[in-house]
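ARCHIVE CARD
SHELF: 3
SLOT: left
DATA:
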Amino acid sequence: VLVSDSVYGPTRKRVGANLLQRAGVEVTYYDPLIGGGIDGLIRPNTRMIYMESPGSHTFEVQDVPAIAKVARDRGILTVIDNTWSSAFFCNPFSLGVDIVLEAGTKYLCGHSDAMIGTVTVSTEEQFQALKAMQNTLGSRAGPDECFLALRGIRTLSVRMERHQKNALEVAAWLEARPEVERVLYPALPSDPGHEIWKRDHTGASGLFAVMLGEAPKAAVAAMVDGLELFGIGASWGGFESLAIPIYPKGSRTAVPWPHDNPMVRLHIGLEDPRDLIEDLEEGFARLNAAK
């Protein structure tokens, strides 16, 4: 299995190391910017390519159609984690992907009150194989979780549009801050993946990362700890904003993350963006005072 090096951390640890490798499945991580060059990594025993675009920490946008074409020509299944965009902003099947995963806990539910995931396949054969495995493992979504996901889907469009509007406003403000080296958000024209994002997606979610200038860990902690409107947490996708320090360098193996800068991942919720900006401005004051 070929897996993107920018994949969600628990996918690398729990699925890649704990599940697949223990079952004798070889896992090779690849540069998320490899595009059609992934053909050079395919071996006789390669059966699947697992993508996540953008990556949920470093936000590289993969050339999904190019990877999917290589895989299809070689008879290899492609799977993508589409949680960042949700089905509202991206249809991976139109890009040539075979199987689409989504953490429904996040944008589908939208209220941070249920745990559910979705697997969507493109053929009857895939469906029957998935159904058989699900019956074997006995895994099912509970009725309460299904109800909450169906409830959330009713407001998915209005929520996603507001997440995008708020995130663009906050991200543009952050780009102009002297404390910020870079904002990692594909919807910004300055982002390296902007053109591919614009080609393959119809919008952007509220999740992005902020690369700060040089600052001690205690200063970053002071900034984040004092935020009033941002909760501290990893499970984004709800209506409230979140902030959490991230350290991508420790979770890359195919392509080393070249930056030592402190980073904070933000999920921009449905609050008034002016209030969020004011909260972040006070956070930068704490950051600067603690340097």
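SLOT: right
DATA:
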Amino acid sequence: MKSGIYGTKFLNYTKSLLFTLLIIVIVFWSSGPIFVAIASSFKSNKDIFTYKPVIIFKPVLENYIKLVSDWPVFFKALRNSIVATGLSILTVLLLALPAAYSFSRRYCRGFKSVSLFLIIVRMFPPIVITIPLYPIFRSLGLIDTPWALILVFTAFQLSISVMLLKAFIDSVPIELEEQASIDGCTGISTFFKIILPLLWPGIIAIIIFVAIFSWNDFTFSFLLTGVKAKTAPVVIGEMQGLLGTGSTMTWGMMFAASTIQFLPMLIFIWLTQKKLIGGYMLGSVKG
């Protein structure tokens, strides 16, 4: 009897250990390129591509200093990325919240058709949407402006945002709204005081989705911008094209630019992840 119990415990322990090792391997495999890019940005050019990788080295700021002095256009593009990403998040939330609430609480005979249309729009490859939009945006004077990116990012992320928020609103008991109506709350006040606080997990999830898509986008930014509104990924692509052409561009500067570009998003996701967990706990308590 005891041997059977010990055998079960040993089997469970072995499974837990193997699962933990698998998670560790996946984490190292996924985060390895990130650590290599960050470490290489502080290495001299001769240490980046040595035959035996240099693990212990003296950090230098030469790559960042050269990036600031030789490529001020990169930091302008980084500012464009911040503007396009921030306004895209705001626009998606302003449109998705009322749309999701209407789909959830108001009966619509054609809801299934609308839902199918939203999903189909999200499935289109970016290049398929960009080609017909280019002449339209050019006639409206939106080419090489942040508004072109904001409109495209919003259109591409609005469908999944509406469907996700609708699922969260569906989980909120309608009796809460009925009770608030009895207490004298209007429809708008009920939404902001009762529904909205319970939607924070969904809102944070949408912010993360839209931020990652907008911040890392290359296709839309490359085709719809030129000089004034191009974003950081486009400039990094231009920097990569100069490697090995005799220019002052080096791999160290490339790694420095890549680190500056992706590090803010990693920090942003880490911070919003805490808010996401806190929102789930808040929703469970209030629900």
